[in-house]
Design brief:
The chain is an alpha/beta fold and 240 residues long. It has helices at 2-9, 41-45, 70-74, 99-104, 123-129, 163-175, 187-191, 222-239, and strands at 30-32, 51-54, 57-60, 80-82, 111-119, 143-145, 154-159, 161-162, 181-185, 201-203, 213-215. Helix 5 (123-129) links the parallel strand 5 (111-119) and strand 6 (143-145).
Amino acid sequence: MLKMIEAILAKRIVTENISFTGHNRMRGQLQCSNSCDCCGKCAEICPVQAITMINGKPEVDYKKCIFCGRCVEACMQGALQHGNKEVLGSILTETQVQIGEMITAKLGRSLHVRHLDAGSCNACDFEMGALSNPIYDLHRFGIAFVASPRHADMLMVTGVVTRNLEQALRMTYEAMPEPKLVMACGACACGGATYGSTYAICGSAADIVPVDITVPGCPPRPSAMIAALCAAADILNERL
């Protein structure tokens, strides 16, 4: 701990500004150019059926997308490419996309979050653990994780909902005081299609409880989680 404090003071560890743009090699929002010949191979090869052809052009359901890149590899024309931008459509409204204003604005109140793993592979949970480190420093926004749902403003769900944890999800949601929010974090919780349809899986978080905010990705970046949490704080302030 002392070494970490020394590193922070020596500016060897610097808290990052929240950004919706990742590394150049990041698989972010898909972009389709005019060279698309509408062959539909991208939709055929998608392992989670996240792509549908609408008016001859691919449309991506980012709640299901795991950003595996198979659609890009299958595109013979090279028309489909990953950008390095986060997918924001299902997270933020147009006014909230002004990330500088949203992050630097002083929150009207704190946001207490209860996390529930409904059946994840733990990739989202590992990224979530990074939120509290000195690089991302979630507490600077007045947001903290709590142990009890009775103390929580928002329920953060990771993983596809398994039958063994369906009741736990329902009971956790019911135990939370009003007003309350639910955030589905990652492709499993958002779309529920990652593992297909089996006897052991109930589906996405929205199939069990009402979901207010979704954070696409497999797993999402910590920056995307923080942006969604700040947006949730804004939504909660509006409801109060």
